[in-house]
Amino acid sequence: MPDRPAQPRIVLLADDDDDIARAYTRALELHGYVVHRARAGGEALAMIGVMPKLDVAIVDLVLPGAGGLDIVRRVRGAHPAARILAITGLDTEVVSDAFHAAGADCFLSKPIELAALLAAISDSPA
Q1: Between 68-78 and 93-102, two packed helices, what is the crossing angle to 10 degrees?
Q2: What are the residue ranges spanned by the domains of the chain?
Q3: Bond into 8 cis (ω within 30)
Q4: I want to staple 109 with a disulfide (CB 3.0 to 4.6 A). Which of 63, 81, 87, 91 is the partner?
Q5: d(Cα 109, Cα 22) in Å, to the nearest integer?
Q6: Which tens digit of pLDDT belongs to each residue from 76-114?
């Protein structure tokens, strides 16, 4: 059985790809996380505004509506202690630098192995 956090950790998953979101959600829930999924940027921004607690945000760069950089900035402003993982299929230094400048803690390029995602959330090597 996977290690579970002492208290459930709250995750915002902002990704419009249903297959990826389903796989990430299953894996995270098996590890004791509570996952709230946003399919569009505006939906993610609205959720951030009403979430009293957010431990981890997993944010795709390209989303319908508001983009990932706006979401990262909003998470960092509203939940400064949250761990923010930026994910995208666009693996370039410019994109990585933009995400880090917006406040992301970690940048992962798709496709992402579930073990690497979990390791990035816990800030340990995969």
Answers
A1: 30
A2: 14-122
A3: no
A4: 91
A5: 18
A6: 999 999 999 999 988 788 999 999 999 999 999 988 999
In degrees rounded to 5, what are phi and psi of residue 118? -65, -40
Distance CA 13, CA 106 (A): 14
* pLDDT tens string 35-74: 999 999 999 999 999 999 999 999 999 999 999 999 999 9
- Residues with Cβ within 8 Å of 37's Cβ and at least 6 positions away in sequence, in order, are 12, 13, 14, 15, 21, 25
Q: Say what the pTM is.
A: 0.91
The fold adopted by the segment(s) 14-122 is Rossmann fold (3.40.50)
Q: Which residues fall within 8 angstroms of residue 46, CB to CB, at 6 or more apart? A: none
